[in-house]
Queue: 2 jobs
Job 1
Amino acid sequence: MSDAPTTAQRANGGLMPFVRTYTMELILLALVVFLIFTAPGFASLANTLNVLRTVAMLGIIAFGMTAVIIAGEIDLSVGAGAALAGCIVAWFGVTYAEAWGGTAALGIGFLAALIVGFFTGFMTGKFRQWFNVPSFITTLALFTALRGAANLITGGFPLSNLPSSFGFFGGGYLFGIPFPVYLFALTFVAMHFLMNHTSFGRSVYAVGGNMEAARLSGIDVWKVKSLTLALTGVLTAVSGTLIASQIGSGTGTTATGMELDVIAAVIIGGTSLFGGKGRIWGTFVGVIFLGCISNGMTLLNVSEYWQYVVRGAIILGAVLLNQMLDRSR
Amino acid sequence: MLDASLPTDRGRLEFNAVSKAYGPTLALARFSHDFTPGKVHALMGKNGSGKSTLVKILAGVIQPSEGTLRVNGTDTTFASPHDAFGAGVVTVHQELSLIPSLTIGENIFLGRLPMTRRLGVRVIDWARMHREAATLLAEMGLDLDTHATVSTLSVGQQQVIEIAKAMSFRPSILLLDEPTSALATREVDLLFTLVRRLRDRGVTILYITHRMNELFQIADTCTVLRDGNFAGSIDMAGATPDRIVEMMFGETAKAKRPARQVIDRSGSPLLDVKGLTRHGVFADISFQVHPGEILGIAGLLGAGRTEVMRAVFGADPVDAGSVTVAGRSFQRPDLQTMKNAGLGYTPENRKEAGLVQILSTHDNLCLASLARISSAGIVSRAGEQGFVDRQIKDLAIKVPDPLLPVSSLSGGNQQKVVIGKWMNTAPKVMFFDEPSRGVDVQAKRQIFDIIWQKASEGLGAVFVSTELEEVLEVADRILVMRQGRIVAEVDPTEITLNDLYALCMKDQT
C-alpha cells in the first residue's frame, strides 16, 4: 500500500529506485520548472491560487474515485452528479429562500444533494451485487440520467437568483486562500487516513486486489464496494455545490466531461484500473499535474483543440509509463 | 526398445529416458516406455506422480530436460504445442476449451474456418464448414446438429465435441486428460463408445484418469507413475484393482502420525452440522467436531468435500440443515456470521482465493482480523505488528520482508500465511482444504505439525486432501464421501490405505 515504494528502494538501493518510485512527482516537478520559465505569470501568487481553486473541484472527487478504482469499480457519472448536486442546492436556495431564509434553504439543499449522491453511489454497488450489472454500465446510465434530472430541476435555465453569501464557498477567500482549497486539503487528509489507517481502507485494497480472497476472509465485499461508490457520490455533491457557488447558479450543463478528467487524474497518479493498487497521494500529484498542464497551456496560448490532444497523449503516456514501471519492478 | 523405424509405426509413441527437472526436483525421472499403436493406454498415478508433466511434454507445453521422444517412429522434439499438433499428437485437456456462444461447427473449425470468394471478397464458407463438420461427426457416430450452439449441449456432449475437434486434426495419437471428470454415468458411456470407435480406427489413445472402475471398462493397458518414476505397466486383461493400487502407492508406507491424545467426545461438540443439503451438490450431511479433534474427509475429486466445507463456513448457500458452533445454531450460515462465530477456512486454491497476491504478507496476515486489530475502525501498522509478528514466529513463516508482496513467497510459506491469517481471528474450528497442495515435502510436514499443534491446544479441525495417505496420517477420524453423501466413517488406525481408496472409489452404480 502506501509503504510499497520504500520496499522497492530497500530492495535495490541507489538512485534508480528513487527515480522509479517518484517518477510522477519528478515529472510534475520538471513540468512546474519548465512552466515557471516559459509561461508568463505561471509562478505568480494569483495564478497559483487560481490553479489550486480549479484543481480543488476536480481533486475532491478524484480522491473518492481513487477508492472506487482501487476497489475494482468505476464511476462515470461524477460530472453529471456534480451538475445535479449544484442544481439541487440552487433549487432549494431559489425556492425556499423566502420561507426558510437563505442559509437554511441552501443548507437543506446541500444536505439533500449529499443524500442523493450517497444513494446513487450506493445503489450502483447494489446493482452490481443484485443484478450483476457492472458499475461501468450503471454509471453510464446515471451519466445521462443525472444530467437529465438536473435539467428537469432547472427547467433548462440556470437557477441564479441565489443569496449572495452562497458565492463564498466556491469563489471566496479565507486567509487569502480560496475556500475550496481548504476542502481539497481536508478531503486529501481524510481520504489518505481512510485508505491507510482504517480497516475499511485496508478492505478496499483487499477487495480490489482479489475479491474472492477478500470474501473468504470474511470481508463484506459488496458493502465495501458500495460504500466507496457512495463516498464518491457524496464528494461529488460537495464539489458540485462548490462549482454552483463559484459560477453563482445551478445549471444542468456544468461539469461536462469532468468524469474523464477525474479518472485521468487518478490514472496519472498511478492507480491501477485493475484494482487493488493505488495511492491517494498519487492522485494528488495527478490532479496538480493536470491543473498545471491546462493552466500552462492556456498561459502559453496553446489553442484549446491542441490542449485536448495533449491531455489525451498525457493520459496514454501515464498508463504506458506505469505499465513499464510495473514490469521493471 | 528403439528399433528401426518402419512405416507401420504410425501411432507408436516411445519415451526414452525422458526427464523433467524443476530446479533440484525431478518431476519426471528417466521415463521410458513404448506405447503400442492402436490401443487405449491408461495412465495412472496420484497427484504429483509426474502424470501431468508427461501430458504437458506430449502436448508440447513444456520441454523435457533430458531424453528423447519418438512419435510414429521418428525422433521428435516439441518446442511448442504447435509442433505436437504437427506431429499428430493432439491433447484434449481436462478443462473444456470450447466457446459456449458459438456453434458446434464453428468450434470445431475455430481459427481455420474454410474460406471462399464471393464477388472477389474472401468470406467464410459456412455451407462447407457445416458440411465438413457434419461429416466428421457422422464418422464418429455422433448425431448432433452442427448448427447447435455449444452452450445448449450437456457437459458430456461438449466433451465429445472437444474430442471431435481434436479428431478433425487427424491425429495418430490422442491424449485424453481425465475426460470423464465432469460427466454423469450415461455420458461416460457415450464417451467410451467414441473412444473404442477411435481405437478401432487405429488411433493410439493415452487415457489419463484416477477412476479405477473406468480402467477395466476402457483401457487395454495401464501404465503407472509414482513420484516421477515409472512404476510399471500392465495388461488390463491380467490386472486387478489391488495390483494397480499397489503400483500407485508402492509398499504402502505406514503413516507417520505422532502419538495423538485421546479425543474426549463426551462433552458438547465445537461444531455440529445437521442434515446440511445443497440440491445437486451434497445431501444430508451431518457430523460433529470435538475440541482437539481433527476430522478428515476423504473422497475423490467431485465427491463434495470442498463444497461441504465451503457451505458450513458460509461461503456457499445451503438449502437445508443447520450448523451449530459452540452451542450457537445457524440455519443459513453466512460468511461474516460464521467467521464471528469462530470458523476459519483455508481454501484449496491458495493463489486465487486464499491470498491477495499484490498485497504484502503483512496485509494478508491481517486480512481476516481487521475488526479485532482495529479500534473504532482505525488501524495502524504498529497495532498490526504484534499480530503479524506472532504468526510469523508461531508458524515459522520464512519471509525476508513482511512488507513485500506475498506473491514473492514460496508455496509453503504462502500456505502458512493463509493459516496465520485465520489464526489471528482466534478460531474455534478450522477447515483445511488441501493445505498441502503445491508445497514441498518439508513445508508439508510443517503444515501438518501446525495442524496437530493447534489441535492439541483445543482447536477443532476439518482436514481435506486428495492424497488419501495424508488424510490417514493427519486425521483422528475419517468420513468418506461419495457423490455428495457421507457413506462411511472410519478410524484411520484401523484401515489400510488400499481399503480407504477402495471405499472412496467404490462403483457408484
Job 2
Amino acid sequence: MAPTASQSSKHHFKHWVQGALQATPILLGYLPIGFAFGVLSQKAGLSPFNTLFMSLIVYAGSSQLIVVGLIAVGVTPLSIILTTFVVNLRHMLMSAALTPHLNKWPKWALAGFAFELTDESFALHATRFVEKAAERAETFAVNITAHAAWILGTWLGVVAGGLITDIEPFALDYALPAMFIALLVMQIKKNAQIFAALLAGGLSVGLYLYGWGQWYVIIATIIGASFGVLVEKWIKN
Amino acid sequence: MDQELIFMTIIGMALVTYIPRVIPLLALSGKNLPKLVIAWLRFVPAAVLAAMLTPAILLENGQFAFGTENLFLWAALPTLIAAVLTKSLFLPVVVGMLVVIIGRMLIG
C-alpha cells in the first residue's frame, strides 16, 4: 500500500518540521558553545577552513574545545587524537543504549545516525524513543538541526569573534543543563532508575574531584546502571 | 603546527570519534541480546545523563559550590519542579533560563 508521492512528501515534511522543532533546546545551547569554539580555535591558530572542518566531521563539543587548547600549547597530533578518543569514548555506551530502539533500521541509516550522535542528541532521542517508535525522518531532522546549529555557531565565532564577547546575559549557557534536567526527569519511570541516577551522579562528581580525568562519566554510568539492574531485581523479589 | 598537519589531525580525530559512535549500533542491532543486557541498557540513559549533569551543576571551577555564586545549581530547582509538573522539554528549559537571567540581573 504505497502512498502517492504528494501524500508521502507532505508526511515527510511534517516529520522534518517536528524533528527540527524538538531540537530547539539543543540549537539554543549549541549556537553559543559553537561560537566559543570558533573564537578559541582562531586564537589557537587554526585556519577558518580547519575550524569549520572540525565542526563538520568531528562534531563533538567538549573534545573540540579541549583540542584547540592542546593545539595552542603545541601538543603532538598523536596525543591530540588519543585524547579525543578517550574524551569521546562515552558515546559507545550511548550508541549501545539506543540500539534496542533502532533494531528495524537499515545499516546505512544507523551509520548516518551514529555520525551525529552527541551527548545532547542522545539525551533527546533516549527519551523520544521510549515515548514513541523511532521515526526516521524526524530523528534525522533532530540530528541535522543540531549539527547545523553547531556549524553555524562555529562560523559566527570565526567571522564575528571580536564583536560579541559576552553571552551570559541571555543565559544561553543554561539551555543544555536545563534540557538535561528535563530529559532526566522524563526518562525516569521507576524507582530503580532514580537510584541509578543518584548513584551515577554522586560517583561522577566524586571521580571528577579525585582527578579521574575523562573517565568519570563512563565509570559512573557503568556502575550506576549495574546497580540499577540489581536494585530492580531486588525490588521485584 | 601548520594547517596541513592540523587538517590530518582533524581527520584522525573524526575517525576515533566516529568508531565508538557507530560500532555498538552496527554490531548489536538486529541481534537477540540477552535479557540482562537489555535490562542494563535501559538504565544507561538515566545514569549517563545524571553523570554528565551533576558535576556541571554542583561544581564551579572544580570545587563544590552551594552558594549564590553557583546560579546553575539554584536554577536547577525550579527547572526540576517544572520538569516534574509538565513532563515536557520546553517549559523547564525556559524556566531555567529565565531564572538564570533574573539571577544574573540581581547578583551581577
